[in-house]
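Section 5.1 Outputs to date
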Amino acid sequence: MKLTRFITTLFAVFLATAVKAQSRTVGLQFTRGSSGADILGRFVGSEEVHYRLGASAGKQMRVDLATSNSSFYFDIFAPDDVPDQSTAMFIGSVSGTSYLGILSENGTYTIQVFLNRNAARRNETAEYRLSVIIGGAVAPAQDIAVSLNGGLDWWVVTGVSNRLNVRSGPSTANSVVTTVPECFVISKMSCTQTSAPRCRGEDSQGRFVGWVAGRFMAELAGPAAASAQPATDFAEGLSGGPDWWSVTGVSRGDTLNVRSGPSTSNPEVARVPNGYPLRNMGCVQRSPRWCQVEAADGRFAGCQIFYSPSGRVTAAGSA
């Protein structure tokens, strides 16, 4: 009996030690006068190391990883987010071994390093060097649009073959926040004054803020300002407008052009007849109106022209 108890106790201690060894937290501090640190380490199996460092909103953070094992990654978590419980703001297995971004809030950030599950199960090892740099505050991007001179503040995505990446910072090294299709409207745009400008803007409905490549943006008149009044048909389905449109008013035997951008100079992506259902992705209020639409089966997406005031399309109710 005593031997059994001893073995049980020893096994419990072993388990506790093993679990503790799998996750280790290290406070990351820079030496005086330095804005960065290089960490050299060796990793085995299912270990996890969480490097934690405090930083301020508006500062630029750069993290680079060099490793002997291609299955070794790092993730970055925003303040109050917990590794293995929250979604990372940067996911190394998706976005690569370098991160460059502007921090959006004050607090303690966590950089988690780890082997992927398969490599950990094989108890592989990884030699690594993790470089972390926190730069000075980044000045607000300078607007190169004519809005500084009384122009317009609304922009539309144009010239993309598929969808445009919206990133967390002004670099392709930054993680992708979301993607948006041709004709998507972005507001409050400001761009860097470079030969290949990166522009910071937000969804007109306030669902995201991020950076896009300026060469894919065109300035236009924006949608009507938000108010307490019920949403008009200019709004997309999620914002109170109808979920679907139905094509109407097209001459017999004719079709309505769906184009890749909000102009008759944009190429056609489809032709649809009277009665064809189109998902409402939101319109811009100008004359003639253009609306972003999508086929119900996902076969195409594009902008569709509205001839004011009678219109060529009518609301077809909600899905």
